From TrEMBL:
Binding site for Zn(2+): C78, H81, C149
One GO term (biological process): one-carbon metabolic process
Keywords noted in UniProt: GTP-binding, Hydrolase, Metal-binding, Nucleotide-binding, One-carbon metabolism, Zinc
Matches recorded under InterPro entries: GTP-CH-I_C/QueF (IPR043133), GTP-CH-I_N (IPR043134), GTP_CycHdrlase_I (IPR001474), GTP_CycHdrlase_I_CS (IPR018234), GTP_CycHdrlase_I_dom (IPR020602)
Gene: folE
Protein name: GTP cyclohydrolase 1
Family: Belongs to the GTP cyclohydrolase I family.
Keyword Transcription regulation on entry: no
Amino acid sequence: MDRERIARAVREMLCAIGADPDSVELQETPRRVAESYGEFFAGMGVDPGSLLVDAAVPVNGDTGELVLMRDISLRSVCEHHLLPFRGRAHIAYQPGERVVGLSALPRVVAALAARPQVQERLGEQIAQVLEDGLSPRGVVVVLEAKHGCVADRGVRETDVEAVTIASRGALADPAARAEVLALIGPGVERQSK
Ligand SMILES: Nc1nc2c(ncn2[C@@H]2O[C@H](COP(=O)(O)OP(=O)(O)OP(=O)(O)O)[C@@H](O)[C@H]2O)c(=O)[nH]1
Ligand SMILES: [Zn+2]
């Protein structure tokens, strides 16, 4: 990633809004924003499938029927406004032959989230990487997120959460999927109310 170029663009934006990028207060801001963008978009160029390649865990056939990782932190950036959206990802799969280390799943989420995204595509991409990498019998990916562009500008709905579902194979069946959704339960914020 070309951080110098990002910093130059941020300097230009500060000028465009009528601020002085050479002031004591703002002179480090282009560099800081460039560093932040380095984090936000660290998934650019990362092959998420490679994160599953060496992640197999030998279970000698004892895969269990369902693996669910609930409440994985989700941080991404919307491609429309370059504003953050964040929340939780829940990933369930019915194993075929392969089971991977649990920590591989948040890594796949993080790699795909660290790009300009829309929530629906992010969910579909996570589901597809699992489908391709694990050959599971079924996959469900549920994302729950609050979007900066919905909360802080535009309609300014500060509490709404977007929930999206992507599913594959046996878990695309509504009855099978309902069991997973029941295990995921209501959103954590609603649980605590
Ligand atoms: N489906 C979907 N929409 C998103 C996502 N992130 C942001 N948006 C929406 O993308 C839309 C962009 O709409 P545009 O009309 O092109 O841009 P805008 O005028 O800035 O949009 P408003 O937010 O409606 O003011 C808005 O409705 C956003 O709320 C996302 O992950 N998925
Ligand atoms: Zn947006």
